[in-house]
């Protein structure tokens, strides 16, 4: 049987470690002193018992030394120490051994039933020896008390030698287990706070990445579409500048309008980004978990603030802009129109916008068909164009348009498919839950 350190304070940190089963050197020193005192006591009581029993005094006295020294093992084997103290009870030896042994046993992690059995055995042994001692000594002093007086006095003696150390040991053991439980809970809370801080940092990093991705998509949609149309109109303006001044003037006006629209949308996005930092109050830095959570919340708020973008009602204007740039575009609407959430409307608009931009860039002169189907719980989009009539205007392409569309649709739980058609054109399809 082992103990949790009945005497030593297991929670004391920084103390030098002891050898073998001692947690600290101070505990080793205490047990050595107790063992020496107990060995001396057992030796003297053994000599006295030998004289009374007619046994060799020297032999019995020497035998008491290792018996008393068993206190050195009390932290490692408390049950064995108590059994030794019970075994030598008839010889009226080991008072210190019995008291300290019972205390250590009660304060240890030994099962409670074993503590009860050994404490009862120690009490019974002490009671029997005390009764026998009274019956032997009282007649010699010419004092003959009644049986019940002797029994009560023996019970008090036996209880006085067993109950206090057992009760004190139980109290100390319960208190130590409570302290260890509180320490474990504190360590668990510390680990939980550390995990929460890590998760808050991950959420903040995720929010920052999401915001960067969203900004990249918005910048791509605004710049790519508007600038593509501006390039197409500029090319048309260059072609008709001398032949048809009136048409050139209209194209120039369109280029100016598109440039102003692009600047307006860019300023809107930049304003959202500046709002959080410009309006943030100057306060003292918050603790790390709270600061990281605040960063994540602020980033998420900025993302939500920018979600309100164009709507499906503006698709007709978008198609007209492409028609004005010379593209043959057909807009087909199916089902009963109904309002959707801002993210759904904005995503549907951006899908159509990016698809038409790709037609301008990669398939000039091709006819495009935009189909929008309003269904019970979703909106379906399909943008299909025919083969190109010639080389494109040479606009740069980073290949992020389709990726951005797919990310937008997937973020809302929708399905996005794109690819070439058998006729040599290209088709973009998306279904967005509404």
Automatic annotation (TrEMBL):
Superkingdom of the source species: Bacteria
GO cellular component, one term: membrane
EC number annotated for this UniProt entry: 2.7.13.3
UniProt keyword annotations, A-Z: ATP-binding, Kinase, Membrane, Nucleotide-binding, Phosphoprotein, Transferase, Transmembrane, Transmembrane helix, Two-component regulatory system
Bilayer-crossing regions: 28-47, 53-73, 80-102, 114-134, 146-172
Signal transduction histidine kinase subgroup 3 dimerisation and phosphoacceptor domain sequence ranges: 211-276
InterPro entries named in the record: HATPase_C_sf, Sensor_HK_TwoCompSys, Sig_transdc_His_kin_sub3_dim/P
Enzyme class: transferase
Catalytic reactions of this protein: ATP + protein L-histidine = ADP + protein N-phospho-L-histidine
GO molecular function, one term: ATP binding
Protein name: histidine kinase
């Amino acid at each position: 049987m082992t103990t949790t350190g009945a005497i030593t304070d297991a929670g004391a940190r920084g103390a030098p470690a002891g050898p073998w089963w001692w947690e600290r050197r101070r505990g080793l020193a205490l047990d050595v002193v107790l063992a020496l005192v107990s060995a001396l006591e057992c030796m003297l009581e053994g000599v006295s018992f030998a004289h009374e029993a007619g046994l060799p005094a020297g032999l019995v006295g020497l035998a008491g030394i290792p018996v008393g020294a068993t206190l050195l093992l009390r932290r490692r084997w408390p049950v064995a120490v108590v059994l030794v103290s019970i075994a030598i009870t008839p010889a009226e030896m080991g008072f210190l051994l019995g008291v300290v042994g019972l205390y250590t046993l009660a304060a240890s992690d030994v099962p409670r039933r074993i503590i009860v059995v050994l404490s009862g055995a120690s009490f019974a042994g002490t009671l029997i020896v005390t009764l026998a001692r009274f019956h032997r000594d009282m007649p010699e002093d010419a004092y003959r008390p009644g049986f019940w007086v002797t029994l009560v006095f023996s019970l008090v003696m036996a209880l006085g030698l067993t109950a206090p150390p057992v009760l004190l040991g139980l109290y100390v053991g319960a208190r130590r287990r409570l302290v260890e439980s509180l320490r474990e809970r504190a360590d668990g809370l510390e680990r939980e706070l550390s995990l929460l801080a890590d998760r808050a940092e991950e959420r903040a990093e995720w929010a920052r990445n999401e915001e960067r991705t969203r900004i990249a998509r918005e910048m791509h949609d605004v710049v790519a579409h508007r600038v593509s149309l501006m390039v197409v109109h500029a090319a048309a303006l260059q072609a008709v500048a001398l032949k048809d001044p009136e048409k050139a003037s209209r194209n120039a006006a369109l280029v100016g309008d598109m440039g102003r629209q692009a600047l307006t949308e860019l300023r809107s996005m930049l304003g959202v980004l500046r709002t959080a930092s410009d309006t943030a109050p100057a306060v003292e830095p918050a603790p790390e978990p709270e600061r990281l959570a605040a960063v994540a919340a602020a980033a998420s708020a900025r993302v939500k603030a920018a979600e309100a973008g164009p709507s499906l009602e503006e698709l007709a204007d978008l198609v007209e802009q492409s028609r004005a740039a010379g593209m043959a575009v057909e807009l087909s609407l199916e089902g009963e129109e109904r309002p959707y959430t801002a993210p759904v409307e904005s995503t549907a608009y951006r899908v159509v916008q990016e698809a038409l931009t790709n037609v301008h860039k990669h398939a000039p002169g091709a006819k495009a068909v935009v189909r929008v189907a309003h269904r019970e719980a979703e909106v379906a989009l399909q943008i299909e164009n025919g083969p190109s009539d010639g080389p494109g205007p040479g606009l740069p392409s980073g290949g992020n348009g389709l990726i951005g569309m797919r990310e937008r649709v997937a973020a809302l739980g929708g399905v996005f498919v794109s690819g070439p058609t058998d006729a040599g054109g290209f088709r973009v399809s998306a279904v967005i839950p509404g």
